[in-house]
Amino acid sequence: MSDHILLVDDEQEMRKLLRVCLAPYSYVLDEASNGEEALDKIMAGSYDLILLDIMMPEVDGFELLKTLRDHLDNQIPVILLTALGDTERVVEGLKLGADDYMVKPFEPKERGGQQNG
């Protein structure tokens, strides 16, 4: 059985890039374009990992992470995807319960994507 990943990002191009990067690994990938949609999917499904953008309209990634850790499944690993690479924001995300973070923009091979040679 493949790992089930929820990708939450309001930017369609970022979701497309990550979909392409993850395709060779046969993950089951669900997508949400905002925090509310993600919350609905989390409540209805079962995920092994959540890739979560911080800067989204309405319900941002920090709010969704706090809800997840305080009220829902506390065990799902969460990796934050953020254009906010400053230390304060990264520490805030980790204190809220994120397991790791990736600063955008990033190269797919930075985090174990396909490499040539």
TrEMBL record:
Keyword Translocase in annotation: no
UniProt cross-references to PANTHER family, sorted A to Z: REGULATOR OF RPOS (PTHR48111), TWO-COMPONENT RESPONSE REGULATOR ORR33 (PTHR48111:SF1)
InterPro entries the record matches: CheY-like_superfamily, Sig_transdc_resp-reg_receiver, WalR-like
GO MF term list: DNA binding
Organism of derivation: Evansella vedderi
Keyword terms: DNA-binding, Phosphoprotein, Transcription, Transcription regulation, Two-component regulatory system
Modified residues (4-aspartylphosphate): 53
Protein name listed in UniProt: DNA-binding response OmpR family regulator
Transmembrane feature ranges: none
Signal sequence coordinates: none
The Response regulatory domain, residue ranges: 4-117
